[in-house]
Design goal:
This protein is an all-beta fold. The protein contains no helices and 7 strands. A 3-stranded antiparallel sheet has the order 1-2-3, with no helix packed on it. The protein is globular and about 50 Å long.
């Protein structure tokens, strides 16, 4: 489950509160309203050679529903980045599955959109690889 989570950061001189950022959760928002199952970065996926894994992304992000008109001062600024996908680095997977242009749309009428990523890992060199949203 991908959604926006509040976070705070504090050091000796500065505190940042009530910011939002993408977080990855193992439970749905209805099951985990306090984001206890969430983390940034997302959870670690440990796999061995000859492993098949199906990663399902559920987009629980919701935008503000504001439509900007041409000429609006905010038209070229980030606004409600609520479309997501999944992209991996280092894994030898099909570009048909690892499509960085794929759009998983945001939740509409309390119905989240999902996308399945069926990764088949054959022989693979060992290493640390990472994934992120686009």
């Amino acid at each position: 489950y991908v959604r926006l989570c509040e976070w705070s950061s504090m050091n000796r001189t500065t505190t940042i509160l009530n910011m939002t950022r993408y977080c990855y959760c193992t439970d749905s928002k209805s099951t985990d309203p306090d984001n206890i199952s969430c983390s940034v970065p997302g959870p670690t996926l440990q796999m061995h050679d000859n492993t098949a894994i199906n990663v399902i992304i559920v987009n629980e992000l919701t935008g503000a529903g504001v439509i900007l008109a041409p000429g609006d001062l905010n038209v070229n600024r980030y606004k409600d980045m609520d479309i997501t996908n999944l992209h991996v680095h280092g894994l030898h997977v099909s570009p048909r599955i690892d499509n960085v242009l794929l759009k998983i749309n945001p939740t509409e009428a309390d119905e989240p959109h999902t996308q399945s990523y069926p990764y088949g890992i054959d022989y693979h060199y060992p290493g640390t690889f990472w994934y992120h949203a686009h």
